[in-house]
Each structure stands twice: as C-alpha cells, then as structure tokens.
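Annotated sample (chain length 133).
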Amino acid sequence: MKQPRPNTNARIGAALALFPLLLAASCVSESNAGGAATTLATAAIKPAAPATAEFGAPQPAHATYNCGQRGSLTIDNFRTSVRLVDPEGDNVELPASPATQQSRYGEAPYALVLDGNEALYMKNGKEPVTCNR
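Output written by the structure step:
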C-alpha cells in the first residue's frame, strides 16, 4: 500500500513561517544574558523601551548617593562616562556600556546602573550596593 506523500510546498511554507519566530527567540538582551530565558510569548507582549527612556530622566552632572552603613557614592556624570568615588574610597572612571546609552556604565571589575534616584554599584568580589540620592 502506498503512503500519501506530504505536500512539499506546505513544508517549505511552514519552515518560512517559523523562521522569524526562531530568529526572535534566539535574541537575548544584554541585561538577560546569562539569566533565565525570557519566553517568546512574554517578549511578544512586552515591547522594548527605547534606550534613552530606559531609566527615566537624565541624571545630574554631580550627585552624592547614600549607601547606608556602607557610606556614600559620589558621581560626576559626563553622560558618556562617569567618574566616581565608591564607598571604599576608590576613584573609578567608567565608560557608558554600551556607549549609546546614559544609565549603565562599566569596565572590569566595576559596574554602575543609574535609575532615577537610585544607583546600583557593583564591584567584582563584593556584594552589590544600592544607594539613594
């Protein structure tokens, strides 16, 4: 008995229809790299925010953040880079990372995320510190 042969055009059409979905599913945001995978359904429902509006209004050129018992964090913000004095007294200069935005800064072994009145400061080998203006 001869088996019916599947329609080759239907297979090609299905493969072409699935290709954009597979391509979208393979994208991982920088903030999600190494973390739990975001489901395709969630990514389709939640549109990406533009990089300039990602963390609200621009930060002040000079600000001091209170880090609780750890001390204070002083930041001079030049938009494409920051110069800071961390709670341990280290002077650090960090470029924007990636260079096209103005809320995330980093260079090994340091990272800084500015979000409204909060600053999240990370130093390799140390506990991350959340500081408030």
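Annotation: The helical segments are 8-25, 40-45.
Annotation: The chain has two helices and eight strands.
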